[in-house]
Amino acid sequence: MNSLFLRTEKRVILRKTLRLFSLTFLALSGVYVQAQQEEVSSTALLNMPIGVSTISHEIYNLHMLIFWICVVIGVGVFGAMLWAMYFHRKSIGHEAENWHEHLGVELVWTIVPIFILVAMAWPATKTLIDLYDTSDAEIDIRVTGMQWKWQYEYLGEGVQYLSELSTSLDEIYNIEPKGEFYLQEVNNHLVIPVDTKVRFLLTGADVIHSFWVPDFAIKKDAIPGYITETWVEVTQTGVYRGECTELCGQGHAFMPVVVNVVEKDEYQFWLAEKKQEALDIAALTQVTFTMEELVERGEEAYLRSCAACHQANGQGIPPAFPALAGSAIVTGPVEAHLEIGVNGVAGTVMQAFGPLLSELDLAAILTYQRNAWGNDMGDVVQPIDVYNYIQAQ
Ligand SMILES: [Cu+2]
Questions:
Q1: What percentage of the chain has pLDDT greater than the value 90?
Q2: How far does the centroid of ligand 1 lie from the alpha carbon of residue 110, in Å?
Q3: How remote is the CA of residue 175 from the centroid of ligand 1, in Å?
Q4: Residue closest to 363 by CA, chosen among 338, 339, 392
């Protein structure tokens, strides 16, 4: 009877072990197949990504060092345990030894871990210090998170622009199939040169956001009223994608980060072009546009900057975001409309767009709003009207 019981118990253990092995095998072959598809090594998929910045390499090396220390400890501890369990098992007649209050053992298991911990804390502290060392940066960029976009300002260069989601609302609402970079594409990329230390000064305009680019090993909160700092030196050109990683409201998923890392001379060229673009747009403030021109430009700019809240059809999502179709302000005197467009509504998520958009874009958006969705006001707001309104304050 007893031996029969033992035999079934052994069989259960055997079956469970086999099941564990086959599950592990299945999981690993899944990883292998995926690695083949993505043309990378299987270990690269299982392991932490190495990234493309100096600090990401340092973090990766630290991770591998700690990993191997853990492997050695794991093999030692489990090896000793399994060896003891097998060779001193009760069924071959072993008696348990009594090591209670054994001074030697207690000293060893206190002193050895202290050495191991110090050996791990030393390189970890060095990496942390490097991670926080934002000194000697060649380029300073202020990054402002706001609902739901990023603003990049190249300090001392006079270049500043918004980076807004460019995935169409039709893709988001499943009217069109989703593209390759669904929710990971923007109208204006952040551009930085390769092999150059760039410092990011992060802040938030409304709520807490967080700036995350996994390939750079950067993840830092952007907090209203504070400036937090981080830095990167990227060693490989390319396009890298990240996102806001602090839940910041309804459009949290709609503020990706896209960074172009380019050669140094290409960066200088881009910067010069960007400065010229700002001058050109500023010059357009003096130009009088036709209603058609404003409405056309305004629709595009509206979809980028306003539709996340007020919706493409101008119906908003009441009560959070009011409808602009038939709104008393949009169909009322231009002054009140300008006031909200330029200064926003304090204490609400309706931002002041005066400092964020060019006079031209804001004028085009307001003209579009006044003449879309049956508003039919028939009047236009010119860039110079926006300029004068801002100057008069
Ligand atoms: Cu955010």
A1: 62
A2: 46
A3: 25
A4: 338
Of 163, 195, 186, 191, the residue nearest 267 (C-alpha): 191
Q: What is the pLDDT of residue 235?
A: 95
263 Cα to the center of ligand 1, angstroms: 29
The gap from C-alpha 323 to its chain's centroid, in whole angstroms, comes to 30
Name residues with Cβ closer than 5 Å to ligand 1, which is an ion: 209, 244, 248
Report CA(223)–ligand 1 centroid distance (Å).
10
First and final C-alpha spacing in the chain:
97
Q: Which domains does the chain have, with CATH numbers?
A: 1-47 (no CATH), 50-133 (1.10.287.90), 139-275 (2.60.40.420), 287-391 (1.10.760.10)
Residues 78, 340: Cα–Cα separation, whole Å: 67
C-beta separation of 146 from 254 below 8 A = no
Average model confidence (pLDDT) for the chain? 90
Using the mean position of ligand 1's atoms as its centre, give its distance from the Cα of residue 69 in Å.
38
CA 185 to ligand 1 centroid distance, Å = 15
Whole-number Å distance, alpha carbon 71 to ligand 1 midpoint, is: 38
For 297-311, the pLDDT digits (tens) are 999 999 988 988 899
Q: How far does the centroid of ligand 1 lie from the alpha carbon of residue 317, in Å?
A: 19
Burial pattern 144-163, b for ≥16 Cβ within 10 A else e, equals bbbbbbbbbbbeeeebbbbb
Residue tagged 């072009």 (tokens): 273
